[in-house]
């Protein structure tokens, strides 16, 4: 395809996506729902981390949308814990987009103020390119992926409003270089908070939950959606 045509086509896709994302964001802000786009590689521990953060929430009701290419394994897991969870299957697409999320959100009865976690497709590249109506992007990175990930997959680290470093219980068995990891993050994203957690020891989740509840209350009623540049 001609390069100029391709660039214009991509710009149109992003404009249309962002228009719908802004609409979802406004609608959910009005309903006092704080929306978090949860991103990370396959198996980074997105679902495990969500379960642990949700246990530590004090004031906000949790809602979850599970994005998966196929299967409802994570949705059944969360529903089994009594968490209001809704499924999106993309049947091939490597990321969620704003229309998919908008369709599901329209049918959810948000009966209490809360936080909506949207677990994106396990992928460290594509989800970072598409807004889906979130107030905040959470990136889950793990010590098992290696400390060079901010250098190799910069966009996700650059766009994140909060970064979770997961599976810290495994550090003794790996050669994870935390200083190198942090240096890579700081080159891309000067002020992003980085929380260390472990689903095995339970370390770190109360601080993450506290951060979320503070952000949600600071931004409650405010449309803080930023347009895609
Ligand atoms: N050792 C250790 N294992 C963990 C931790 N968190 C998650 N796991 C394990 O990592 C595997 C993947 O966790 P999930 O929570 O399913 O990861 P996910 O990112 O939701 O995976 P997908 O939805 O398939 O992309 C599971 O076997 C978890 O038990 C942790 O903190 N430490
Ligand atoms: Mg999962």
List the keywords.
229 residues, alpha/beta, Rossmann fold, 7-stranded parallel sheet, 8 helices, disordered C terminus, binds guanosine-5'-triphosphate, binds magnesium ion
Task: Summarize the helices and strands and which ones pair or pack.
Blueprint: H1 3-30, E1 33-40, H2 46-56, E2 61-68, H3 73-80, E3 84-89, H4 98-105, E4 114-119, E5 136-142, H5 149-152, H6 154-159, E6 162-166, H7 178-188, E7 194-196, H8 205-219
Parallel strand pairs: 1-4, 1-5, 2-3, 2-4, 5-6, 6-7
Helix pairs in contact: 1-4, 2-8
The structure holds guanosine-5'-triphosphate and magnesium ion.
Roughly how much helix do the residues carry, as a percent range? Answer: 25-40%
Number of distinct helices: 8
CATH C-level label: Alpha Beta
**Biggest sheet: strands, sense, closure?**
7 strands, parallel
Classify the secondary structure makeup into a structural class: alpha/beta
Give the number of domains. 1
In terms of per-residue confidence, which ranges show pLDDT below 50 for 5 or more consecutive residues? 221-229
Order of helices and strands: HEHEHEHEEHHEHEH
Radius of gyration, CA atoms, in whole angstroms = 17 Å
CATH superfamily: P-loop containing nucleotide triphosphate hydrolases
Summed over residues and divided by their number, the pLDDT gives a mean of 93
Distance between the termini: 23 Å
Write a structural description:
- The chain has 229 residues and is of the alpha/beta class.
- It has a single domain (3-219), classed as 3-Layer(aba) Sandwich (Rossmann fold), CATH 3.40.50.300.
- 40% of the residues lie in helices and 19% in strands.
- It is built from 8 helices and 7 strands; from the N terminus they run αβαβαβαββααβαβα.
- It has helices spanning 3-30, 46-56, 73-80, 98-105, 149-152, 154-159, 178-188, 205-219; strands at residues 33-40, 61-68, 84-89, 114-119, 136-142, 162-166, 194-196.
- A 7-stranded parallel β-sheet has the order 3-2-4-1-5-6-7, with helices on both faces.
- α1 (3-30) runs parallel beside α4 and α2 (46-56) packs across α8 (205-219).
- The radius of gyration is 17 Å and the shape is globular.
- Guanosine-5'-triphosphate is lined by residues 40, 42-48, 74, 122, 166-167, 169-170, 198-200.
